[in-house]
Amino acid sequence: MELLTLRNALVPKDAYKAFNIEDIYTLVNKYYPLDFSEQEKISLKFQLQHFIIDAPNHPDLKNLSTMLELCQFLARTRKLRTFYLIDRLIRLILTLPVSIATTERSFSPMKIIKTRLRNKMEDEFLTDNMIIYIVKEIAENFSFDSIIDEFKDLKERRAIF
Asked: Which of 57, 96, 116, 133 is 20 to 30 A distant from 29 in Cα terms?
């Protein structure tokens, strides 16, 4: 919850009323420590201070209401050269829902498989089944016949050597 609350500090709605440099800095330190070096964290603070002065005075920046619009504006006007660390942080935050969904998608099938099959098989076989279940879009492209043919070819190669 704290992550979602802190990310709102970057929302440009209502002439940047929610824009809070300390909350943004806390967000970077707590949730993205490996994405920014110590030098970049210091530079980010200065960029945020410059941005909060520049944004209300820029006519196009006043009308933005979402982080996506802000990110697009920075790219379109090439202000991302000046505010490159703010742009990086916004992009990290915008990809957050995708990251969470991908992780949840992977763990959900693992939980199903582990509860059903935990006592019936060895760890290696369980791992192989989980990989196939998680990436089932790829596994659906294989037919039983192609798998059987692959094993036959392996057996023939071993017989030659």
From this structure: 57
